[in-house]
Please model this.
Amino acid sequence: MAKKHRYIQTDIWNESWFADMPPRAKLVYLYLLTNPSTNNAGVYIKRPQSISFDLGIDEVSQVLQYLQERGEIICAHDWIIIIRHPRFQKWNTSISIAKAIVSELEDVPSEIIQILRDSQYDYPPIKSEEDFQQEKLRLTNAFKDREFRKITRTGKTPTKNSKPSYKTFNEYVPFGDE
Model:
């Protein structure tokens, strides 16, 4: 399994919406951004009991309620939605991140998608099915353009089954009957 990395902009500590939170709310919010279940969309299943166990604090439900009342997250049917999460993912400048967000949102149940559409969730392409389809088309075209630029630059057409340009271990150190 690939190792996931989550980057947090350090100026989060200077943002008034974050700085004004009590310490436990900051802890839970940072956990929601960085726990193993999180993804590029910031929409995933995580039960409060699991958060409580991981953090070693009992009042997780109250903290989640506090964050929800402030409009930072939405908790629905064991789903966590981090409202601001897409804003910090640079989806509009990185097609790889945008594609990951789209892919993750395609696996989300329709009732959760409707909650995203009705909320302040900070990913404009999810606001309607038409916008979402337009985003998928934009990404398809962007990936095609990127592949075309690679071919133009290198003169080679990438293939999925192409062999590596280096010798394998067995080619350097042959085993068997010779």
The chain is about 50% helix and 5% strand. The longest strand covers residues 73-76.
